[in-house]
Amino acid sequence: MFSDTHPDVEKIHVMISRSMPSWRRFRLVNDLIVTGRKLALAGLRERFHGASHRELHRRLATLLLGPELANKSMVPNPTLPPSDNAMEPLQILQRVISNLEVLGVHYMLVGSFASSLHGLARFTQDADLIVDLHSSQLDAFAQAFASDFYVDLGLIQQALTQGTSFNIIHFESSFKVDFFVVGGRTFSREEFSRRILRQVDPRSEFGAYVQTPEDAVLSKLDWYRQGGEISENQWRDVLGMLGQQAGRLDLVYLRKWAGELGVADLLQRACREADIEC
Questions:
Q1: Which of 144, 206, 213 has the alpha carbon at shortest distance from 177?
Q2: Is 193 exposed, middle or buried (0-12, 13-18, 19+ CB in 10 A)?
Q3: pTM higher than 0.70, yes or no?
Q4: pLDDT tens-digit profile of 74-107?
């Protein structure tokens, strides 16, 4: 599937990955994020000898978020440096989803977490959720996250009005969660209605509603086309999901919506590269 991997090794990789439970896949993504941040922080310590913990955190946040969002993500009380034991991404995601469920906000986990669940785990810098959020829930939403996250109520209202996206940022870790307002197009409503519950942490019995593998493939192909077909990560995600889910996909559904979305040619190309029948 990938040019830098011997076919025999790739087959073993696929076999091992296909047998993994969903919670272990989520943990793999979490560990990749944690490891990536630790490596980046170690590099910053080498480059900026003597920098305070807070200064290193600010520089790490800038690397991950860019300068504007990094400034917003810093802990509000400057006398409290960021903790060495910051919450892990899965813990943050669990808090976010728990708040949404308490608020009665329907959601669906998408993006790299979803594609890693259905395909091959990879590093990501944030979590993506599609939400069916209404204006009447805005104040309660902001209050639920205000103590631990940077929240801009004005931007959320704008996103709801325009049907776009907004984000919140966890102060302690600078981990970002992007929210996409569920769209009005037929496919958007269809994929949202098909979301599936998957276990994220067997110890806490934490589960999350996630995009189906078919819809994850379709949405990635749609984003890939809209982005000018240049994102290697998007394409690798598609190939990874097709390879991992071979024999399990609803091909009738996949072909139907690929045609509706105008990505039928991309689906066929991806299937050929993944060496599966579509």
A1: 144
A2: exposed
A3: yes
A4: 755 544 444 455 689 999 999 999 999 999 999 9
